[in-house]
Specification:
2 copies of one chain form a homodimer.
Chain A lengths: L13 H21 L6 H8 L3 H4 L6 H23 L8 H18 L3 H5 L6 H25 L5 H24 L2 H26 L3
Helix pairs in contact in A: 1-2, 1-4, 4-5, 4-7, 5-8, 5-9, 7-8, 8-9
Chain A binds a DNA duplex through helix 1 and helix 3.
DNA sequence: GCATAATACGAGCGATTACTCGTGTTTGTC
DNA sequence: GACAAACACGAGTAATCGCTCGTATTATGC
């Protein structure tokens, strides 16, 4: 006989799928506004317009919500990155950087909870696990992008460069998201400026190793 | 008659001063390891080797501990910055950057709680208030440094440049602190590389506005 | 030595929070 | 329409945490 499923996954009805969407949306807003710890599950339920009990029919605990949110972000990010992170041959470095930075910033603006899963240094262990796939995915994409831009880089230098690029973006996302619209575009431009200057400099010294 | 002091500050004995040091040290370690929210006041007390009641004879609440820690960091930072952030005339840009980055990294390694007050984007409001003076102080220093390095920058461009520099460092501090020693020096070098490339690029376009 | 203030203790209080459970309602299937 | 499964509710529970308070000990000034 087959091992009995501990949690026989219920067959979701359309109502249930809609509830899940509401819950994840409410959670994303709360995470983005107050951070993970300060967000209460009862608060998420209230914001989603349901009772605490209903929330726990779709998610086993608070971490599970963060995990589901991260998974969803990862899927949506894949779509965005498929367009904006590929490097067509013969395109200037600053255009590639601009495209990638733009898509990440837009994604953060459209998904307010994202930065809580991506740009935060000291998360509780449980949440770090939930956010890990998102970070790995981003790292791979940035790695491919940098490798395409600067083919002369050996693997070690490539790794270090990816860390610098990724964490530079992480560091600047909070002020960018918090800024007013005009200030935001200034900051985005300056982030692109910084990354471009760095990558050009890396490229200039890549061959002479 | 004078207004009665609500909290007549007790005259600290040598014992009391020593306790305060123990408490702040324990708090710094806990904040650095687990973050602010996950750190419990009873945990700080236990780590400091005292009872919860004793802790509250020196601090009115948890925020007060963070505030005192921030104040202490600010004083110690002033000493460090006085040496390493001043820009002697005729010194190369990359040397100034290297000195400043080195001092900030060393400070973080020596004071494990610092990054919880400096490099974290989504803190609770109460803690943001405690950390604000530290951030302002750093901002001023970086501003002075950049202004000395690139005198041609107008005020607006200067502000933006400072934000980029400061948040780039913020973003890279977590991986730098977490890295092993050899990886750490590589990352520090690369952070200096990035900042230098960016500032040189800013300097190159500063006159043509 | 004596009075006063500072330091020390730790059990426990009040508030908060993640999560449960008993019960009732809606939806899909035949 | 009948049955089961999915959905919904919200008061309640157990555990945690910041903080208090009554009491005991140690240091200081005279």
């Amino acid at each position: 006989m087959p091992v009995a499923a501990i949690n026989p996954a219920p067959k979701r009805q359309a109502r249930g799928e809609a509830r899940i969407d509401q819950i994840l949306l409410a959670a994303a807003k709360s995470f983005g506004e107050q951070g993970y710890e300060a967000t209460t599950t009862n608060g998420i339920a209230a914001r989603a317009g349901i009772s605490p009990g209903s929330l726990y029919q779709f998610f086993t605990n608070k971490d599970d919500i963060a995990h589901a949110l991260a998974t969803r972000y990862m899927e949506q990010l894949s779509d965005v990155q498929a367009e904006s992170f590929t490097v067509p041959e013969g395109v200037a470095l600053d255009q590639v950087v601009s495209s990638a930075v733009g898509s990440i910033v837009d994604f953060n603006l459209a998904h307010p909870g994202f930065k809580a899963l991506f740009a935060r240094p000291d998360m509780p262990e449980s949440m770090r696990a939930a956010a890990a796939p998102v970070n790995e995915r981003l790292q791979e994409r940035v790695r491919d992008m940098v490798a395409a831009l600067i083919p002369a880089l050996d693997d070690q230098r490539l790794d270090v460069t990816v860390v610098v690029v990724l964490h530079t973006v992480k560091g600047l996302l909070p002020p960018i998201v918090a800024a007013t619209e005009s200030m935001r575009s200034t900051l985005v431009g300056e982030l692109e400026h910084s990354l471009t200057a760095y990558l050009r400099s890396v490229a200039a010294t890549a061959g002479s190793a």
